[in-house]
Give the backbone structure.
Amino acid sequence: MAWLFYRSERVIFLFLPAVLLVPLTMKKRLAVRKREQLASQFKDGVLSAAAAISAGYSVENAWKEAAGEMESLYGADSVIAQELHTLCRKLSSGQTSERAVQDLAGRSGVPEIEQFAEVFAAARRSSGNLGPILRDTAESISRRIRVQEEIRTLVAAKRLEQNIMCLMPALMLLYINLGSPGYTDPLYQGAGGRMIMTLCLIVYGAAIYLGHRILRIEV
């Protein structure tokens, strides 16, 4: 981008620190995907625990059964299996099930799991029938996840179009620079040309940012 908009070695070196932003951005995107995956899998874990409780298991043993079933379903390296095994270790060390679930919710940062932790704690305090409560909560989480998945499916094509449109200005500028090098020379010479290219880069960056913000739909 520095070469396209400034054609200067000095500016390229000035832009190098911006490369450090790429891993941070990718880390945030991976964290979002991990939370989405955990929310989807957690619903199955709750249903498994609810079935175990209805079959007569204690709450602690129900979570152990759910952890084993999630490991069989998604694999030992899956997020939900690791989280439920961590929960079970805390239960084995004497921590209450309410506190263990709240810890899981706090680590996950997933709103659905945080809401479940509140419902679970309230049900335990009131000595309610946990089986139906867990099933109803899992169904509520499932409905919300289905809506999110439908939205992601609907905007997938728009997101692809957006990515193409984000690349087009840079590719057009590259094509002109390679095909007709002298045509854009005035933009790379003198203070006026540098100011115009700087303004174009700012507008270009702002358009990319706004485009991603518009398609970031949360339920």
About this structure: The mean pLDDT is 83. The longest helix spans residues 130-179. The two ends are 35 Å apart (CA to CA).
